[in-house]
Amino acid sequence: MSHESYELKAEARERVGKGSARELRRNGLIPAVIYGDKQPPISITLNTNDVTKRIHAGGFMTTIVTIDIGGKKIKVLPKDYHLDPVRDFTMHVDFLRVSGNTQVTVEIPVHFINEDKSPGIKVGGVVNIVRHEVEVHCPADAIPEAFTVDLTGAKIGDSIHISQITLPKGVVPVITDRDFTIATIIAPAGGLSGEEGEEEA
To answer: What is the pTM of this model?
Structure first.
C-alpha cells in the first residue's frame, strides 16, 4: 500500500481568478479544486505550510487524502500541483474525488535491492535505469507505494522487464503492448577485466 492516508482542513472558496489567488497566497493559503466522480467541481483553499510539508514528505501524488470542508469530508487523490518556478512554493493543487471503485492512473516509483548480490555489479557493471517510475492503472484505495526490483544474480547485459515485477492484484501497466524494460546492467565505460556471463534470454 502507498503512504498512510491523512486529512487536510479546507475552506470553500467563493471568489476565483488571478487576483483572488494572489491575495490568498499572501495570506498563507493555496487555491485548489476538487473535481471528478460526475459531480460539479468545488473551489477550496488550503494552508500552504500543510500542503508543502506533504509534498516534500514524498508519495504526495499516490496517497489518498481526506479534505475536510467545514465538517464535510471528501476523499481525493492529488492529480496535479504547480510550484512557483522561482520561490518553490505551491501555487495550486488539483484533486480528483475517489470512491471504493474509482480507477486511477498513477506513476509508481521503482526501487532496486540486492545490488551486492549481482555478479554484474560486483565486477564493475552499473545499473542503467530506463524507468524510474512505471505508470499504471489501479484502484484508488490500493495504490502501491513502490515496485521493487531484485538484482540478485543479474549479470552484465541482463535486462529487467516489467514482467519480472510482481504487480499487486488490480494493478495494470498503462503500456500493455510490450514487455518494456525497467533497467539494464551495463559494462562500465572503461570495459571489464575478465569475462562476464552471456546475456540471458
So the answer is: 0.76
